[in-house]
DNA sequence: CGTTCACTTGAAAGTGTTCAATTACTGTGG
DNA sequence: CCACAGTAATTGAACACTTTCAAGTGAACG
């Protein structure tokens, strides 16, 4: 595997990026495929500044992307202009899959900070799949993961109180950031309270109030956008109870 | 196409079932595939009575299913036992796709009334895909549709008031039931008020109250589980405003 | 013909939102 | 390096929406 990484000029095959979805894609595909074909997969890198769009809703599908550093938020627009944030994405997350079939992006993706992106051109997705049968299988897996993630969010939005949602959200961010075994963890939020509220289906003020309450109860320590989870066990029980 | 339908003993290639996902699957696949291979696709029919399970969460993946008549509700269980209904499904809907990758079903599916099901064994999904390359492509399409549907539901749960949600839900059911061009439509609910509330993230009583309010405003007429939409235009504007 | 279950309705209690005002921080230009 | 402007975050108070608990109605079914 490491020898393969050396041979390939593909950004996301480096060990550093082992968590990256594109890496996984390349790796899955790489088994019995010749390298020149693989080269057609990952082509460019991109750097986005805070607020810049990776893609917009309705634009024609040209590529899928993976986050290398930084973070991206995706959102969809309702008919009336309201905007629902559908996720915050960092290291390794693959974006743009929802466009594979419809041919246009169905949500928009914005950088929340300076962000490095791995681009995989897919203008010829159909042909690529013929050349690389494993590719479709991998796409299937990634999409099904997406479905499962979305389901969790639906459960969150539909059945949980604001407090439960926020606790779950904090735990989630800690997990994707550091994967601590227990006790304590530090989270650096790249999104505003407003974004969190939007994502979790509550008002910005409610986010603030509940964070403050958590802090008063000793569960967390707030330092602007850096939040320390002091008692993960307790947070977990908050996120589940009703 | 119709000649093909005659030759094939597959339930879902009949014209009656043209809206059926499995039919679409067979059709997409059928182009340049020999019929004996197709025969391996759709095998059995099943009849479920109200309350019977099509599959349960955690059970090993063995088949995908399509609804021919009747209706199915799918739901997922939270850690604490709470249960979120993720959808109501009738004619043509394909179920069980979320299990393709994980190998076990990730939600449970129950018949809401006597329901006829088309079963497509997929114990050998990987091999099937090798034989029929178009199959994976089609699966990809179906899954991406699922993702888009779920997103709509997320928007519903996260951003809309109870009134908006219920209006949207009624319109949705009318659409899948009859696709009327305008004005008036009749919907036969196969699910209880309780189920609707669960699905839309509100209490059963709230569903009742809002339905009553809609009726008082002349938007709908309630006759037990048969609901007539008297003014679809108005309902649409209710479902969007804030 | 009575029991059961789904549905409906009322009143009280929460929960979360909105509006408004204040405070804290970031970045910019002098 | 500091003052200023602008944005983000916080807090308070009133209000609105939804839930919960409780009770009653009605249709279906044995």
Mean pLDDT of chain A: 81
| Total of helices of chain A | 10
Strand order of the largest sheet of chain A: 1-8-3-6
| Beta-strand percentage range of chain A | 15-25%
Query: Largest interface: which pair?
Result: A-B, 44 and 44 residues
N to C succession of SSEs of chain A: HHHEEEEEEHEEHHHEHHEEH
Low-confidence stretches of chain A: 1-19
What structural class is derived from the secondary structure elements of chain A? alpha+beta
- Bin the helical content of chain A: 40-55%
| Approximate shape of chain A | elongated
Report on this model:
The structure is a homodimer of 242-residue chains. Helix content of chain A is 44%, strand content 22%. Chain A has helices at residues 2-7, 21-30, 35-39, 99-102, 125-131, 133-159, 162-178, 193-200, 204-216, 232-240, and strands at residues 44-48, 53-55, 63-69, 72-77, 83-89, 94-95, 108-111, 115-121, 185-188, 220-223, 226-229. In chain A, the strands form 3 sheets. A 4-stranded antiparallel beta sheet of chain A has the order 1-8-3-6, with no helix packed on it. The model of chain A is unreliable at 1-19 (pLDDT under 50). Chains A and B meet through helix 4, helix 5, helix 6 and helix 8 of A and helix 4, helix 5, helix 6 and helix 8 of B.
